[in-house]
Amino acid sequence: EDSSSIAEVSRETLRLSDVGGLIEVKRRIHETFLDPIAHPEIAKAFKKSLGGGLLLYGPPGCGKTYLARAIAGELGASFISVTLADVLSKWLGESEGNIHKTFAEARQKAPAVLFLDEVDAVGGKRSSQNSQSLRNIVNQLLMEMDGVGSDNDGLFVLAATNMPWDVDAALLRPGRFDRMVLVSPPDEPAREAILRGHLDQRPVQGIDLEVLVRKTEGFSGADLKHLCDTAAEKALAASIKSGAVQPVSMSDMNRALKEVKPSIGPW
Ligand code: ATP
């Protein structure tokens, strides 16, 4: 397998309407990104540039990747995901060339969303790479970004970070990732959608979603998954012990709630 090649992906079918809650986040994504792309003539009249990318920032496990996929779905685009921290560690001295290759391949698959996860990794503050090689990587990214969004280009670049303060300042200038959207921890409707997603595929009985939603303030998407997995483990253990399926109950959920705590602080 050619490890420097980006993954083959099909056209994304997820839509923003599949993302539960987060009304304000979705409104910002429409206003700053999707709507101008959908109405290029109006955008032009207002001197709104269609170039550059969108940076999603916020605590880990709160759906940035999920939202990015939904944005690709809205654009009728393919979704191509690259984790920049992996690029640095895997490709060592060849990072610039591979960044170029990744962008070139994404352009070939246009319309495509290229998703750069952990974009802070090239900011230098948390990397062990020497600063010159990081500068080269950032410069390569800037060069690629400067060609994004021109007419009929069909390449859309999204980036994500949990550490917006570590993102290289040059990447945030106009024409680059100049639009930023905070993806905060899931609100009540989002938590309901996430919990539903994890419980729907399991035998459950007497689950009061409304109560769970209220008790999980501050939980990330990843925490909610952990909570449901923990409760399911308890029901599974009881089922094995009794020799008959014991559906996940509210008491399993409450016991899980004693063990699983939110992993993120206030944002
Ligand atoms: P991040 O990229 O912010 O670290 P993530 O994109 O990996 O996070 P999680 O928040 O861990 O996403 O979500 C994991 C899964 O939970 C998603 O793949 C999706 O199935 C579900 N999920 C997350 N947020 C929502 C939401 N708002 N509505 C519905 N399902 C969601």
TrEMBL record:
<keyword id="KW-0547">Nucleotide-binding</keyword>
<dbReference type="GO" id="GO:0016887">
    <property type="term" value="F:ATP hydrolysis activity"/>
</dbReference>
<dbReference type="GO" id="GO:0005524">
    <property type="term" value="F:ATP binding"/>
</dbReference>
<keyword id="KW-0067">ATP-binding</keyword>
<protein>
    <submittedName>
        <fullName>ATP-binding protein</fullName>
    </submittedName>
</protein>
<keyword id="KW-0175">Coiled coil</keyword>
<feature type="domain" description="AAA+ ATPase">
    <location>
        <begin position="50"/>
        <end position="187"/>
    </location>
</feature>
<comment type="similarity">
    <text>Belongs to the AAA ATPase family.</text>
</comment>
